[in-house]
Design a protein that fits this description.
Layout lengths: L8 E5 L2 H4 L8 E5 L5 H10 L16 E7 L2 E5 L1 H5 L34 E4 L2 E13 L3 E3 L2 E3 L30 E4 L12 E4 L7 H4 L21 H8 L9
Length: about 250
């Protein structure tokens, strides 16, 4: 292999046991190894057979990465929703959420540039230059205690975890290592994403600057979100009826 190969790829899979989701089947993917000689790549691959590769070994804070995934599906949609074309006047015959003219007589074909009804969403997309704000550790045991302090900053008075009060909507609690990215990610909650090193060489200041987070909001994302931690809520509300021990 070291003698004849020019490209080395490894087959990797996700750990579905860790997440406790409904799906049990792992996501499998082929990843190319880059950097070093062929023998280095083969040695690296052999050393890491059946081993976990943590996210902190691949990415670093303040780095820009690309996110690949599948967008939210919206089913079969008309032109107004799918291409945001102008609605026709109210009195239009046979409907107004249409394209008035879909082309000239000749060429006697519909051009690909004309908006038509069809599938909207559930498309494969790549978003580039997502800055990593934080690489956080999951919950871990230290001196017999469970440590959840992975979202506090220099300005925080109390320790707190990355999970908002009541967990993330439609997801739950994040107990493993995590990445905090700038901006939104494509797709629905719980949908698998592929993270990739940027293919570009960044020189601009906004991609290279170091970011220090002053505050991470962990108030509830379900309601109005008044409290940052359960301790804050308990201090403000006082002893509650549901917490009373008989």
């Amino acid at each position: 292999m070291k003698k004849y190969c020019s490209v080395i790829r490894v087959i990797v899979h996700t750990q579905m046991k860790v997440l406790h989701r409904r799906q049990k089947k792992a996501h499998v993917m082929e990843v190319q190894l880059n950097g070093g000689s062929i023998s280095d790549k083969v040695n690296f691959a052999r050393e890491h057979f059946e081993k976990e590769i943590p996210v902190s070994n691949v990415f670093a804070a303040d780095e820009c990465i690309d996110v690949i995934g599948v967008t939210k599906g919206h089913g079969f949609k008309g032109v107004t929703s799918r291409w945001h074309t102008k609605k026709l006047p109210r009195k239009t015959h046979k409907g107004l959420r249409k394209v008035a003219c879909i082309g000239a007589w000749h060429p006697s074909r519909i051009q690909f540039t004309v908006p038509r009804a069809g599938q909207k969403g559930f498309h494969h997309r790549t978003e580039i230059n997502k800055k990593i704000y934080r690489i956080g550790e999951g919950y871990k045991m230290k001196d017999g205690k469970l440590v959840k302090n992975n979202a506090s900053t220099e300005y925080d008075l109390a320790d707190k975890s990355i999970n908002p009060m009541g967990g993330f909507p439609h997801y739950g609690e994040v107990k493993q290592d995590f990445l905090m990215l700038k901006g939104a990610c494509i797709g629905h909650k719980k949908r698998v994403l592929t993270l990739r090193k940027s293919l570009l060489t960044h020189t601009k200041k906004r991609y290279l600057e170091k970011v220090s987070l002053k505050f991470i909001d962990t108030s509830s994302k379900f309601g109005h979100g008044r409290f940052q931690t359960p301790q804050d809520k308990a201090a403000f509300m006082g002893p509650l009826k549901k917490d009373k021990k008989d």
